[in-house]
Write a structure and sequence with these properties.
One of its GO terms (molecular function) is triacylglycerol lipase activity. The protein is mainly α. The protein has helices at residues 22-30, 44-50, 54-72, 74-94, 97-106, 122-126, 141-152; strands spanning 14-15, 40-41. It is elongated, with a radius of gyration of 25 Å.
């Protein structure tokens, strides 16, 4: 404990879910005076105040469990995200659903390339606008909201090379 040398504060509470086991979490939950936890980094005074009540220990345990579950689901979520981006790009590259089926049957399937300028994010696939509406004047609420939507579609790649 107290491993981090914090320069900006004296009261902090850092939890590393990668170092926590289920046994560590159960011990933390039912034994508040336990001081040897390798997954918590905090000054002793902060550690004592945080572990005072069962409710605060329960919140810590629950937060670590949720983080561990999310870490287990990282790869499946990434696969779903890749699919949700790839599928609309596949449809667009082949001219729509029915042309996609036709291209599959004739062997002329076009595979979208992630590095190409036509490959867009999921948000880019749902909103194909590339220019703002000409009827909206600069400085209005509508203009700012449309500009925000267009800016959210930009994909930040290395060195701010805006290809999307």
């Amino acid at each position: 404990m107290y491993q981090t040398d914090m320069k900006f504060c004296s009261s902090y509470f850092l939890v590393d879910p990668t170092k926590a086991s289920v046994l560590d979490l159960l011990l933390l939950l039912f034994f508040p005076n336990l001081t040897n936890t390798g997954f918590i980094d905090s000054p002793p005074d902060t550690l004592k105040s945080v572990r005072r009540t069962f409710a605060s220990r329960w919140i810590i345990v629950l937060a670590v469990l949720v983080q561990k579950i999310l870490m287990l689901l990282r790869e499946p979520f990434a696969s779903v995200g890749r699919f949700l981006t790839y599928w609309p790009n596949l449809l667009t590259a082949n001219g729509g659903f029915f042309k996609l089926i036709l291209h599959i049957l004739t062997g002329k399937l076009v595979q979208p390339e992630e590095s190409s300028a036509t490959y867009v994010s999921f948000v880019g696939c749902t909103d194909r606008r590339v220019e703002l509406d000409k009827k909206i004047s600069v400085g209005t609420i509508e203009y700012k909201s449309m500009l925000s939507i267009m800016a959210s579609k930009m994909d930040f790649v290395s060195y701010y090379d805006f290809y999307n």
